[in-house]
């Protein structure tokens, strides 16, 4: 089986994971902006990964509609700032991006990245800063609120090569 990793990265975390995954699978990692129809056609397994904004995986809606992917095995990874243990939030991301039918066919993995305010676009940066202010003012904060406040305070990188192990196992079993 020939594989390719396609990443859509704005702040660097999805690219970092894409390159780690490609290294482990001995295949190519290609930016979404540089992917060609030919490269998609010549691979049996397409691993797509991107960051999350407002619960959606960047570029996924366009990617999954590409005719070149018909008959291909897809694997999806989402990269975000929330911790790997935020299971409820991760399930919400999965449900926001894959229908119940797609969830049966497309393996989904969440990979904790971080927040890079310096590379983030203006609108996302303002959205996160606003969320931070709202959560900070909240009178009764949950543990998850406290974790999110801590996460939004400054740029951070929590990515780890360890996080890709389940995805690598899945990709090798295809």
UniProtKB/TrEMBL annotation:
Entries under InterPro entries matching the protein: Flavodoxin_dom (IPR026816), Flavoprotein-like_sf (IPR029039), Protoporphyrinogen_IX_DH (IPR052200)
Highest taxon above the source species: Bacteria
Residue span, Flavodoxin domain: 4-141
GO biological process: heme biosynthetic process
PANTHER family per record: PROTOPORPHYRINOGEN IX DEHYDROGENASE [MENAQUINONE], PROTOPORPHYRINOGEN IX DEHYDROGENASE [QUINONE]
N-terminal signal peptide: none
An example Gene Ontology molecular-function term: menaquinone-dependent protoporphyrinogen oxidase activity
Name used for this protein in its record: Menaquinone-dependent protoporphyrinogen IX oxidase
């Amino acid at each position: 089986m020939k594989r390719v990793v396609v990443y859509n990265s704005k702040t660097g975390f999805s690219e970092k994971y894409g390159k780690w995954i490609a290294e482990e699978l001995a295949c190519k990692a290609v930016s979404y902006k540089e992917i060609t129809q030919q490269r998609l056609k010549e691979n049996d397994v397409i691993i797509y990964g991107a960051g999350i904004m407002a619960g959606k995986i960047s570029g996924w809606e366009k990617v999954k509609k590409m005719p070149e992917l018909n008959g291909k095995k897809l694997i999806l990874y989402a990269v975000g700032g929330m911790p790997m243990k935020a299971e409820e939030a991760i399930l919400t991301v999965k449900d926001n991006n894959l229908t119940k039918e797609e969830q049966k066919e497309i393996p989904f993995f969440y990979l904790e990245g971080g927040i890079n305010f310096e590379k983030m676009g203006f609108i996302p940066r303002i959205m996160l800063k606003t969320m931070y202010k709202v959560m900070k003012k909240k009178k009764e904060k949950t543990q998850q609120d406290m974790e999110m406040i801590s996460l939004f305070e400054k740029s951070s990188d929590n990515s780890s090569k360890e996080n890709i192990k389940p995805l690598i196992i899945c990709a090798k079993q295809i």
